[in-house]
Design a protein that fits this description.
The complex is a heterodimer. Chain A is of the alpha/beta class. In chain A, 40% of the residues lie in helices and 19% in strands. Chain A has 39 helices and 38 strands. Chain B has helices spanning 38-43, 97-103, 114-124, 138-147, 157-160, 189-197, 211-215, 235-242, 255-263, 352-365, and strands at residues 2-8, 13-18, 24-32, 50-54, 58-59, 78-80, 83-84, 108-110, 127-132, 166-167, 178-184, 200-206, 221-224, 250-253, 268-284, 290-301, 311-317, 323-328, 333-336. In chain B, the strands form 3 sheets. Chain B has a 10-stranded mixed beta sheet with strand order 10-12-11-13-14-19-18-17-15-16, with helices on both faces. Chain B has a 7-stranded mixed beta barrel with strand order 1-2-8-6-4-3-9. Chain B is an alpha/beta fold. Classes of the chains: A alpha/beta, B alpha/beta.
C-alpha cells in the first residue's frame, strides 16, 4: 500500500530541550521525519520548545510552533491547526508522554486526531511495566523477578520477597531518572522515595538485580504488513548495572553465536508483535547471563531512541526517516534503500567494520557529584568511532571524546597509583574506568582478575590487552633501535594508535610522526558505510578512516571528477564532536546551515564530525560525510585526499577552533575570519590594546602564566575578580573570586583545564546588565542580528542565563552605541562570518566583556526569534558573498511583534548533592524558547518549557540577601496581590512585614533544627509553590543548599536571582490572565514583515 | 605467523599472514556477509571447493562449540579474514577458532583488506583463487590455478555426500509421523534437526542412490538437499528425482531446488558472485510476507526457462528479483533457493518446512 491519503495534515512532536537522557538525537530523528513527510506532500505542523534544533527551522515544516511541550499547549495547537493525525514516536519520551496525556484527557478524540506509529494501548503495554511483564511472560520469555510499589511500605515488602541487591526503576520517566540500586533497606528507602516522586504515575518497579550480566540491544522496525527487520545489534562493554547511555557500547554484537543471536532476534520479533507497535522503530534490551546464556528481556521503547540514532549512524540505515514513511502507510519493501538505490528497505544491514560508542561525561562541572555510574544516566554526550577492528575503533573513539586523551593513553603513571585505588576504580563503574583497566594491565594484573572485578567480558579486555602489548612492544623496539620499523608502525596505526600517541612513545612531535609514516606510505584509507558490506554498489558518500589497502573515498572523488568534468569547489565544515555542557546542538545547527547555504551556492560540502546524535552526521546533509574524530591528524587525513578549497572552523564550537592554528600552519585554507584574528580576540593583551585603540571600555584585566603574576594582577585590579583559563568554552572552570585565598584555590583547580595556557583575570562588574550580541560581518559591513538582554546579572554564565530579545530595558541610545561598537570591533578584528560580543551595562556605561569571532550558542535562538538565518548568511559571506547582497536591516528586529525569551535547562536533578546556584561556569545542558506578545507571557512559556511551571497559587518562600531586601518588597507585594501566601526567613520576613506584607516566618538552620524541619517538611509535603532565594557570599550559599536540593527533588521552582524573581512575577501575572496564544513562526515573521511593508 | 598470499585468477593478489597450516589450497573464492555463524559456514558442505572470505572483520569472537556444526567436518578450501580473535568468549565454547582451524589443517589467512577483496569480487565476479604460504610468484601461482577445475559443470556433490545410507538420530526428535528419504548432496544438519523436530524420520541416502533403493523404504516424502557446485554437474540426481514426480511429495532446498528446476525442464545459470549471507529479503508470493533469509548459492534457476503452464513462482528475491521458490501446479513438488533451516541466519523462513509436512499429510490421506 502506498502512502495514506486519508490524512492530509500531521502534527509532529519534538522532544524539547536537551537534557541528560534526551539529547540531540531527537532533533536528528525529528528532522528526518520532517523531511520524509514533506517529501510525501503532507502538510506538517511541528511543535518543539527547543530553538537550537534544525527541525524547528521554518523550512522544515509548514507550521512551526516553538511553544511549551505540555498537553495544554499542544491542545491549543491542535485546536488551531486541526491536524488529522499526530506522530509522537519520533520525539523521545517527552512526545510519547504528551500524546498519552492527550489521549487520556480526550483531546485527540475531541478533535478527531489519529495517533500514528503507536497507539495508546501499545505505548501503555510497552511502558507500563506490569503490562510489559505480562506480555513477555505470555511469549514464554523471561523477565527479572519484580514487584510494583506505589509507596515505601510496598517497597519494603517487595524487598523482603525478592531479596537484595535490588534495582528500582520508576515507570514513565526518561533517562532512568530517579532509578537506582539498593543493597540494603536504607538505600532502598532513599531510592524508592525518589523514584515514586519522579514517576509520572508514582509507580516504581522493584526488581531482581542482574548486575554483571551481559547487556544487548536490538533495533527493530515493523511495518503495517507485519514485516519486521532488525537494523542493528549492540553489545555493551559495561555489564548490566550501568545505564546503556553511560556504557561504552559496540555494534554489532560480538560474543553471541549465531544461535544465540537468532534466539534474541526471534524474541525481538515476537515482542514487537505482541506489544503491537504498528509501524516504526523500537529498541529492545536484553541481559544474558555469561555463565549459562540465560536470556532476560529488560525493556522496550516503542519509539525511536538514542540507540536508534546510534544504530542509524552505525549502519547507514535511516531508521527515523523510514519510521515516518511507515507511519503514513508505506511498507518496508516499498521504500528504497537510499544507499544502494536498488535494494528495498526490507533487509537487514550487515556491516564490515566495528563501531564503538563512548559516552562523554561532565563531572568536572559538578565537583560535588561523584563520577560513579549506575542505572540513572549521567552522560551529556557521546562520540562514535568506526574502525575495521575493535581496537582501532576504541582508540579512535577515545581520542574523539576530546577529554585530553589521544587514544588509550596514560594520563597518570600507573606505577604511582595504589593497587587499592585501582581495585576500587575497577569494581565501581565510573567515567574513567577504561583507563584504569589499562593501569591494572600495566601493573601486570591478569585479564581474568580484571574481568572478575569489572564484570566486563573477557573479549573486550583481551583486545585492550592487545593494544597494551603492542604499546609495550613499540616502547621496547624504540628504546633498542631508536626507531620503529615500517611494518610495526603500520600495525600500530591499524591498532588505532594516533600520531600523537606514537609521538609520545618516540619522544617526538605529532607532525614528525605524520611526516615519517607518510614517507613510509602508511596513510589512512577511507571506507564506505553502505549497509551491505560491499555486496551492492553504494551511492552514499559516508566514510570512515582505517589503515587498509584500498581507499574508496579517493575512488568516489575520481569517479565524480570523471562524470562532471571540472570538479565543483569544495568546502569542508568541521563539526563540534561529542556534546558537552557548553558545546551542544547549537553548533551542530550552525554546521548544518553552513552546508545547506554552501550547497545552494553550488559548492560541494564535506562534513567531519564524530557525534552520532547529530543532524550534521546524517549522510544527506553534506555531499560527503566523514565520521571521524576531530583531531589534527584525522582532519588532515581527510584534507590530504579531499584538498578542499576552504575549511570552516568557526561553526563547530571550540573543538574546531582549537585546531585552527595548526591547520592554518599546515597550509589548510581556512575561510572566514582568519586565525590571526581569532587569536587576537582570544589574546587578552593584544585584545586590550585593540580595545584601547578603539576607545572602548573593558573591565580592568590581565592575564597570568604564573601564580605570582596572577596574585599581582588581582591586587592591582581589586577584588572581586573573574578568573578563568583561556581557550575554553562554556566558562569551564570560571569563577568569581573574592580574595587571594580563593584565587590560589582557583589556580590549583584550573591547572588541569588550562594546560599551560594563561589564566585570565578580569575585574568583576557588580550589578550590571549583561548583553549578548550576535552579528555577521563580511570584513567591510557588519549586521547586528540580535541584541539579547540577560535576565540574570553579569556574573552568571551567558549560557545559563535567561535572555530576552529584543532587549526590554535598554535604552535606544545604548542600543545604538552597542551596534556601533560591534561594527567597529568586527572591522578592527577583520571578522568574516559570525561574531558574538558580550557587553555589561551599568548605568550608561558599556563594558566589553568578551568577543568571540565564531558562531555563538545563541545564533539559532536569534535566527528563530528574528527569522534571519544567521549561520546560512555567515557561511555564504565566508564563501565570498557581500552582506549587501542580503538586504538586511535591524528594522526587522525592531518591527517584531513578539518577545522571545531563551531559558536554560539545568541538569541538577541528575547529580545528587550538587548545589543549584548559578555562577560563571556554565552548567546547563539545553535551552528552550518562550515567545509571546509580552515579556510576562514569553517568560511564563519559557518556564513551562523548561519544566519549571510557575505556580498560580499557594505559598511562596522567600529568603534573600541583604542587598536584595529593599527590592524584594515590591515583588512580595505583587505576589500578595495575586493571593499568594508568603513565608520567609526571619530577616526577610521582618523587612516584608515592615512594609505591610503578611509573611509567615520560617526558621533558618542556625535557629534550631525544629524550625528547619518545618520548612523542609513544607517542601516535602508539597506545600511550597515557589522559592525565591538569592544567596550572598559563599557561606550563606551553603546554608540554603539542602533547601534548594529539596526543591529540585520536589520540582518546586527555585529562583536564585532577583531579576529572575521579577520576571517570574510577570510570568505568573500572564498565567493568571490565562490568555495564552500560540502562533507559528511563519505567522510571526509575516506579522513582523507586514509592518515593515506598511512603513515603506 | 607466516606470510601468505591470496592470488586471484585475474592476477590481483593480497598478502596477509597464515595460521599454522602451511602449503597451498585453491578453489573458487566467494564472500559471505553474515556477521555471525562462521562455524556453521565452515562446516556447511555447500562450501566444498570454495575459499570463503567473511566480510565481517572480526572472526572467532565466540570460539567454536560442539553443537553449531552443519556436518562432521570443515569443508572450505581456505578461509580469508581481516582479523582472527585470540581470546574468545562464550559459555558454550569448547575451543578457539584458530585452534580448530589448525587442528583441521585448514589454510587460513588474516590481515587481508577483505572489503577491497569483496568489492573486487562484486565487480569482477567469483573466480578461482589460491592461498599459498610457499609460492609467491604470480606466474607460477597463475599456472597452478589453471589446473584447478572450474565450478561450472563439475560434480562436487560426490565428494561430500554420505557413503552409506543412514537414519538421522536426534535428541529433540518427536514421535515419528512421517518417513522421509533425503538425497544427500551435502545436507546441512540443521535441516535434519528441524525435520526431526517436526516428527520426521529421515533416511539419508547417498546422492547416487537409485530410485529403487529409495522406494524400498516406502517414504512419505522425498527431500533433495543443499550442496556444493553446479546442479548441471549432477544430472544423475535429477534423473532419480524425476521418478518421484506425482508419486510422493518432493521438497528441495538450494542445490536441491536447482536440481528440481532442471528435472522440471528448466535451466540454471552461474551468477556473477552469488548470494552468500544472512540478510537477503525474499517475498513469499503465496502470503505476501517478506522474510529475511539465509542464502548460499552461486547458481540460479532461470525463471524464463520454466514452463508457466506447469510451474508457479512462489518466492522471489527482493534485492535482485532472482527466483527463490517454485511449486508444481499439479504435483506435490516445491523447492526454495534460500535456506529455511538458516544456520546461520534468521528463522523467518522456517515455516516453509510446514508446507512439506502439509503436503505429506495431504498425500497420506489420499
Amino acid at each position: 500500500m502506498p502512502r495514506r491519503d486519508d490524512i492530509k495534515k500531521i502534527l509532529l512532536l519534538g522532544a524539547g530541550p536537551i537534557v541528560i537522557g534526551q539529547g540531540c538525537e531527537f532533533d536528528y530523528s525529528g528532522t528526518q521525519a520532517c523531511k520524509a513527510l514533506k517529501e510525501e506532500g503532507y502538510e506538517l505542523v511541528l511543535a518543539n520548545s527547543n530553538p537550537a534544533t534544525i527541525m524547528t527551522d521554518p523550512e522544515f515544516s509548514d507550521h512551526t510552533y516553538i511553544e511549551p511541550l505540555t498537553p495544554e499547549f499542544i491542545e491549543y495547537i491542535i485546536e488551531k491547526e486541526r491536524p488529522c493525525a499526530i506522530l509522537p514516536t519520533l520525539g523521545g519520551q517527552t512526545a510519547l508522554n504528551i500524546a498519552m496525556k492527550l489521549c487520556e484527557n480526550g483531546v485527540l478524540e475531541k478533535y478527531n486526531v489519529k495517533m500514528l506509529g503507536a497507539n495508546y494501548d501499545v505505548i501503555k503495554k510497552a511502558e507500563d511495566r506490569e503490562c510489559f511483564k505480562k506480555a513477555i511472560l505470555k511469549l514464554g520469555l523471561e523477565v527479572p523477578e519484580s514487584m510494583f510499589a506505589y509507596n515505601l511500605d510496598e517497597a519494603r515488602a517487595a524487598s523482603e520477597k525478592i531479596g537484595f541487591p535490588l534495582i528500582i526503576r520508576p515507570s514513565f520517566t526518561l533517562g532512568g531518572t530517579g532509578g537506582g540500586v539498593a543493597h540494603n533497606m536504607e538505600e532502598l528507602e532513599r531510592v524508592a522515595a525518589l523514584g515514586i516522586e519522579s514517576s509520572m504515575i508514582n509507580e516504581v518497579i522493584i526488581e531482581e538485580s542482574i548486575i554483571g550480566w551481559k547487556e544487548y540491544e536490538l533495533e527493530v522496525m515493523r511495518d503495517h504488513k507485519d514485516n519486521v527487520v532488525i537494523v542493528c545489534s549492540i553489545e555493551n562493554l559495561d555489564a548490566m548495572g550501568v545505564h546503556t547511555g553511560d556504557s561504552i557500547t559496540v555494534a554489532p554484537a560480538q560474543t553471541l553465536t549465531d544461535r544465540e543471536y537468532q534466539a534474541m532476534r526471534d524474541a525481538s520479533l515476537a515482542i514487537i508483535r505482541e506489544i503491537g507497535v504498528e509501524t516504526g522503530g523500537s529498541n529492545i534490551q536484553f541481559a544474558v547471563n555469561p555463565v549459562d546464556g540465560k536470556m532476560i528481556v529488560i525493556e522496550m521503547n516503542p519509539r525511536v531512541s538514542r540507540s536508534s540514532a546510534l544504530a542509524s549512524k552505525a549502519t547507514g540505515f535511516p531508521i527515523a526517516k523510514f519510521a515516518a514513511k511507515l507511519a503514513v502507510g508505506y511498507s518496508l519493501d516499498e521504500i528504497e534503500n537510499d544507499i544502494t538505490k536498488e535494494t528495498p528497505a526490507s533487509f537487514e544491514p550487515t556491516i564490515d567494520y566495528c563501531v564503538v560508542k563512548i559516552p562523554r561525561f561532565t563531572f568536572e562541572k559538578f565537583p560535588e557529584a561523584k563520577d560513579i555510574l549506575g542505572i540513572q544516566m549521567k552522560s551529556v554526550g557521546e562520540t562514535m568511532a568506526i574502525g575495521r577492528t575493535f581496537k582501532e575503533a576504541l582508540q579512535k573513539g577515545l581520542r574523539g571524546l576530546e577529554i585530553g586523551h589521544k587514544g588509550l593513553d596514560n594520563k597518570l603513571n600507573y606505577a604511582e597509583i595504589p593497587d587499592e585505588k585501582i581495585k576500587w576504580r575497577l569494581e565501581e563503574p565510573n567515567a574513567s574506568r577504561i583507563f584504569y583497566i589499562k593501569y591494572a594491565m600495566q601493573k601486570g594484573w591478569p585479564v581474568e582478575r580484571i574481568a572478575q572485578m569489572t564484570k566486563i567480558d573477557i573479549w573486550f579486555l583481551a583486545h585492550i590487552a592487545q593494544i597494551i602489548d603492542l604499546e609495550n612492544q613499540l616502547v621496547e623496539v624504540f628504546a633498542k633501535k631508536k626507531k620503529i620499523p615500517g611494518e610495526l608502525l603500520r600495525k600500530a596505526k591499524e591498532y588505532g594508535f594516533s600520531d600523537a600517541q606514537l609521538a609520545q612513545i618516540m619522544g617526538t612531535t605529532e607532525v614528525k610522526v605524520r611526516a615519517l609514516r607518510k614517507k613510509k606510505n602508511i596513510i589512512a584509507t577511507f571506507k564506505l558505510v553502505d549497509t551491505c558490506a560491499a555486496e551492492f554498489e553504494a551511492y552514499t558518500p559516508y566514510f570512515y578512516s582505517t589503515y587498509e589497502s584500498e581507499d574508496e573515498a579517493v575512488l568516489q572523488i575520481e569517479k565524480l571528477t570523471e562524470k562532471n568534468g571540472s570538479p565543483k569547489k569544495k568546502i569542508m565544515i568541521l563539526g563540534g564532536g561529542p556534546n558537552r555542557i557548553g558545546q551542544g546542538i547549537e553548533f551542530d545547527y550552525c554546521c548544518c546551515h553552513a552546508s545547506f547555504a554552501l550547497k545552494e551556492m553550488g559548492y560541494d560540502t564535506i562534513i567531519v564530525n564524530s557525534n552520532p546524535e547529530t543532524v550534521s552526521t546524517d549522510y544527506d546533509i553534506s555531499d560527503r560525510l566523514y565520521f571521524e574524530p576531530l583531531t589534527f591528524e584525522d582532519v588532515m587525513n581527510i584534507v590530504d585526499i579531499e584538498k578542499p578549497d576552504g575549511v570552516i572552523v568557526q561553526f563547530g564550537g571550540q573543538t574546531p577552533l582549537n585546531l585552527a592554528h595548526r591547520l592554518d600552519e599546515a597550509g589548510v585554507p581556512i575561510i572566514g575570519t582568519q586565525v590571526s584574528s581569532i587569536e587576537l580576540a582570544e589574546n587578552r593583551e593584544k585584545f586590550s590594546k585593540l580595545v584601547t585603540k578603539l576607545k572602548l571600555v573593558q573591565p580592568a584585566n590581565g592575564s597570568a602564566i604564573t601564580t605570582k603574576e596572577a596574585v599581582k594582577i588581582a591586587e592591582k585590579i581589586g577584588y572581586p575578580v573573574l578568573a578563568r583559563p583561556s581557550y575554553v568554552l562554556g566558562g569551564r572552570a570560571m569563577k568569581i573570586v573574592y580574595d587571594q585565598a580563593s584565587l590560589l584555590d582557583f589556580i590549583e583547580e584550573a591547572k588541569d583545564v588550562s594546560r599551560g595556557k594563561p589564566i585570565l583575570i578580569d575585574k568583576f562588574i557588580n550589578d550590571a546588565i549583561e548583553v549578548d550580541v550576535d552579528a555577521i560581518s563580511d570584513g567591510k559591513d557588519t549586521f547586528v542580528a540580535g541584541i539579547m538582554e540577560h535576565i540574570e546579572n553579569a556574573g552568571i554564565h551567558s549560557g545559563d542565563s535567561a535572555c530576552v530579545l529584543p532587549p526590554p530595558t535598554i535604552s535606544e541610545t545604548i542600543i545604538e552605541q552597542i551596534k556601533k561598537d560591534t561594527c567597529r570591533i568586527a572591522k578592527a578584528l577583520g571578522v568574516i562570518g559570525l561574531l558574538n560580543i558580550q557587553f555589561a551595562i551599568r548605568g550608561s556605561k558599556i563594558y566589553i566583556l568578551e568577543v568571540n569571532p565564531r558562531a555563538s550558542r545563541t545564533a539559532p535562538f536569534v535566527s528563530k526569534a528574528t527569522g534571519i538565518p544567521l549561520a546560512k548568511i555567515a557561511a555564504q559571506v565566508m564563501a565570498g558573498k557581500a552582506l549587501k547582497e542580503f538586504n538586511l536591516s535591524y528594522d526587522i528586529i525592531k518591527n517584531l511583534k513578539h518577545i522571545s525569551i531563551k531559558e536554560s535547562v539545568l541538569p541538577f536533578s541528575k547529580f545528587s548533592g550538587v548545589d543549584i546556584v548559578l555562577g560563571p561556569e556554565m552548567k546547563s545542558t539545553g535551552e528552550v524558547m518562550g515567545i509571546g506578545p509580552t515579556v510576562g507571557e514569553a517568560f511564563a512559556k519559557s518556564q513551562m518549557s523548561a519544566n519549571q511551571q510557575l505556580p498560580v497559587e499557594g505559598k511562596v518562600f522567600i529568603s534573600v540577601r541583604d542587598e536584595d531586601k529593599r527590592e524584594i518588597v515590591f515583588i512580595a507585594k505583587k505576589l500578595q496581590d495575586m493571593v499568594f501566601s508568603l513565608a520567609a526567613t526571619r530577616g526577610t520576613a521582618k523587612v516584608l512585614r515592615t512594609h505591610g506584607v503578611n509573611t509567615e516566618e520560617v526558621g533558618r538552620y542556625d535557629q534550631g533544627k525544629g524550625d528547619m524541619l518545618n520548612l523542609m517538611t513544607l517542601i516535602r509535603e508539597n506545600k511550597i509553590a515557589m522559592i525565591i532565594n538569592t544567596p550572598s557570599g559563599e557561606g550563606s550559599q551553603y546554608d540554603m543548599r539542602s533547601i534548594r536540593a529539596a526543591a529540585i527533588l520536589h520540582n518546586v521552582p527555585c529562583i536564585t536571582t532577583l531579576q529572575g524573581a521579577r520576571e517570574a512575577v510577570n510570568g505568573i501575572e500572564a498565567m493568571k490572565a490565562k490568555n495564552f496564544s500560540v502562533c507559528s513562526l511563519q505567522e510571526r515573521y509575516i506579522a513582523g514583515r507586514s509592518v515593515e511593508c506598511a512603513a515603506s | 605467523m607466516n606470510k601468505a598470499i591470496l592470488y586471484l585468477e585475474d592476477g590481483v593478489s593480497f598478502v596477509g599472514q597464515s595460521l599454522s597450516t602451511h602449503g597451498e589450497s585453491a578453489g573458487e573464492i566467494v564472500f559471505n556477509t553474515a556477521m555471525t555463524g562462521y562455524q556453521e559456514v565452515l562446516t556447511d558442505p555447500s562450501y566444498a571447493g570454495q575459499i570463503v572470505t567473511m566480510t565481517y572483520p572480526l572472526i572467532g569472537n565466540y570460539g567454536v562449540n560442539e553443537e553449531d556444526v552443519e556436518s562432521t567436518k570443515i569443508h572450505v578450501k581456505g578461509f580469508v579474514v581481516k582479523e582472527f580473535c585470540r581470546t574468545h568468549s562464550n559459555y558454550r565454547a569448547t575451543q578457539g577458532l584458530i585452534d580448530c582451524l589448525n587442528t583441521n589443517n585448514i589454510i587460513a589467512i588474516e590481515g587481508i583488506d577483505t572489503r577491497a577483496l569483496t568489492r573486487h569480487l562484486r565487480l569482477q565476479g567469483a573466480m578461482k583463487a589460491i592461498i599459498s604460504t610457499e609460492d609467491f610468484d604470480p606466474a607460477s601461482l597463475s599456472k597452478k590455478l589453471e589446473q584447478v577445475p572450474s565450478m561450472e559443470g563439475s560434480d562436487w556433490v560426490s565428494q561430500v555426500t554420505t557413503e552409506e545410507k543412514y537414519t538421522w538420530k536426534d535428541s529433540e526428535a518427536k514421535t515419528v509421523k512421517y518417513k522421509i528419504a533425503a538425497i544427500d548432496c551435502g545436507i546441512k544438519f540443521n535441516i535434519l534437526r528441524i525435520l526431526a523436530r517436526l516428527g520426521c524420520q529421515v533416511h539419508v541416502f547417498p546422492a547416487k542412490a537409485s530410485a529403487e533403493e529409495i522406494k524400498a523404504i516406502n517414504p512419505d516424502g522425498l527431500f533433495i538437499s543443499n550442496g556444493p557446485g553446479d546442479p548441471a554437474g549432477v544430472p544423475y540426481v535429477a534423473e532419480t528425482v524425476k521418478q518421484f514426480f506425482g508419486k510422493i511429495p518432493v521438497f528441495g532446498i538450494c542445490l536441491g531446488h536447482q536440481i528440481l528446476g532442471l528435472a522440471l525442464g528448466g535451466k540454471t545459470y552461474k551468477m556473477k558472485f552469488g548470494h552468500h549471507g544472512a540478510n537477503h529479503p525474499t517475498k513469499d508470493l503465496i502470503n505476501g510476507r517478506i522474510g529475511i533469509t539465509s542464502q548460499n548459492h552461486g547458481f540460479c534457476v532461470d525463471v524464463e526457462s520454466l514452463s508457466k503452464d506447469d510451474i508457479e513462482i512462489v518466492n522471489m528475491n527482493l534485492n535482485d528479483q532472482t527466483l527463490e521458490g517454485i511449486r508444481h501446479k499439479k504435483w506435490p513438488v516445491f523447492s526454495f533457493q534460500h535456506h529455511p533451516e538458516a544456520a546461520p541466519g534468521p528463522h523467518d523462513a522456517q515455516y516453509l518446512f510446514n508446507y512439506f509436512i502439509e503436503m505429506m499429510e495431504k498425500h497420506k490421506k489420499k
